[in-house]
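Form P-L/3: holo structure prediction, ligand zinc ion.
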Amino acid sequence: MMQNFDLVADLTEMLTKKFETVDLSHTLAENCPSWPTHARFGHIVFESYLYGDTSCHYQVTMSEHTGTHIDAPLHFIAKGEAHYGIDKVPLSNLFGRAVTIDATYLPPNGLLTKSKVIEWENSQGPLKSGDIVLVRFGWDRYWAERPNDAQFLKDWPGVGADAAEYFVTKEVRAVGTDALSLDAYNSGNNPVHNILLGNQVLILENLNNLDLLSPYAFVMAFPLKIKDGSGSPLRVVAFIPKNP
Ligand SMILES: [Zn+2]
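OUTPUT (holo model):
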């Protein structure tokens, strides 16, 4: 019992004193960018003290894929072992070591290749089973409310199919991007979604602030528990060591 108490105290002390938090989620706001065929974000006052009610609260409408979000396997996988929703994803798969791979050198519509991932490993260290891979394209700089969202919604770079296959062999838990989709713009049949989700590797999209992370961080990304959900908005938090 005493030992459990010490462990909790140690963890609390470690996270609060030795680490600082970085918010990797965008703010949900009306007119924030959304996939052209998906529901937009709506925030509608339902009751308010301004109108004589006792409290203020809003009705929220959105897609499961609005803003910073996660894709559950059933988003693309229609049957078999990987056909399950966000409510069935084990919580233990939603936090862990995150490695941030810089891919800001890619041109619009460019693809991160397997050889570039291996190059990254040769300089930073090998990917490990259970890692959360965050690919930084720098696309979050184009995140802007309508009508200024045109650049965010086209020509974004993505992960190549060979790199996705490689991530599966490395048994990573999740792969994330700061662009609208992990498959590059106009990638047609979404090969990376099919490869990763088919192998129960989760996908994180519309991440923010990846430029603030060093190659390694501790990340938590918890979704809403939507029954048979194809995904969910996320508040993604990175813990990075404080400078002494
Ligand atoms: Zn999605």
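COMMENT: Residues 65, 69, 71, 205, 231 surround zinc ion (CB under 6 Å).
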